[in-house]
Amino acid sequence: MKQEQILKVEQLVKSYDKNKPVLKDISFCLKKGEVVVIVGPSGCGKSTFLRCINMLEPIDSGTIYFKDQVIRREEKNVHEIRQKIGMVFQSYDLFPHKNIIGNILLAPLKVQKRTKKEVEFEAEVLLDRVGLLDKKEAYPRQLSGGQKQRVAIVRSLMMHPEILLLDEITAALDPEMVREVLQVVLELAKEGNTMVIVTHEMEFAKAVADRVLFMDEGVIVEESTPQEFFHSPKTERAKQFLNTFHYEAI
Q1: Quick one: DSSP state of residue 201?
Q2: For residues 102 and 110, what is the distance between their CA atoms, to the nearest angstrom?
Q3: What is the dihedral of CA 100, 104, 105, 110, to 10 degrees?
Q4: Which terminus of the chain has fewer Cβ atoms in its 10 Å neighbourhood, N or C?
């Protein structure tokens, strides 16, 4: 069965300094239920690309389509579309003055105007699923980094996004906390959630990706299956990048 195309990016250009674009003519398609992992060296534009998709950053030129609808930051419906393209950041961004259940319920109640009974039930189901139901009354300062990141994922899922963008969600975590977060993401992938993931965790990328994009200096250098990319990369730049991780592992 042919998968429905849910997101399309055409010739995206983004710069902070007009003389030096961060993203150069990026084109990309995402199908419903697909998990795309973006890898590449630090500073190559991976996180900026996700922020452009979610309209957190203005773009210089190019077009972004969500379900064949052109999306722009200046449109009146930008907040509605942003709800459908959820994003989880490496910094968690939980409100310190609210407890965990308060953090999770805020957007569904205020933005989507759903009933408290409905969202409380769903929040408890999701918290239980990620092993944090017993922490619902706790405050962010009482949680580990891995626990906070799992809460951030639950908070995003509560909005029922059609696409989930995950930006280096394990980058700020201690090594022993990384696994608990990545396990949650693996389960979401198995359930058919559509995701675009930026990560430096290569073994995780192999396990979760349907497709791997390798970015460098603001362009997509290579695009292939995990098997092809990790075992027989096409470009010298990708080989060089992967050899760095091989060296670190040794």
Answers
A1: -
A2: 12
A3: 130
A4: N
pTM > 0.85: yes or no = yes
Q: On the CB side of 148, how many CA atoms lie within 13 Å of its CA?
A: 21
Q: Give the β-pairing of 5-17 and 61-66.
A: antiparallel
pLDDT range class, residue 246, cuts 50, 70, 90: low
Q: Are strands 5-17 and 20-31 parallel, antiparallel or unpaired?
A: antiparallel
DSSP 84-125: HEEEE-TT----TTS-HHHHHHHHHHHTS---HHHHHHHHHH
**Residues sharing a CB contact under 8 Å with residue 173, sequence separation 6 or more, in sequence order:** 145, 146, 149, 181
Could you report the per-residue pLDDT of 62-109, keeping only the tens digit for each?
A: 999 999 888 887 776 777 888 899 999 888 889 999 999 999 999 999
Closest CA to 4 of 211, 209, 194, 225: 194
Q: What is the pLDDT of residue 209?
A: 95
Query: Which residue type, as a one-letter code, is found at position 130?
Result: V
pLDDT score for 2: 58
Tally of CA atoms within 13 A in the half-sphere of 89 that contains its CB: 8
pLDDT attached to residue 250: 41
pLDDT tens digits for range 28-46: 999 999 999 999 999 999 9
User: What interhelical angle do 145-157 and 175-190 show, nearest 10?
Assistant: 20
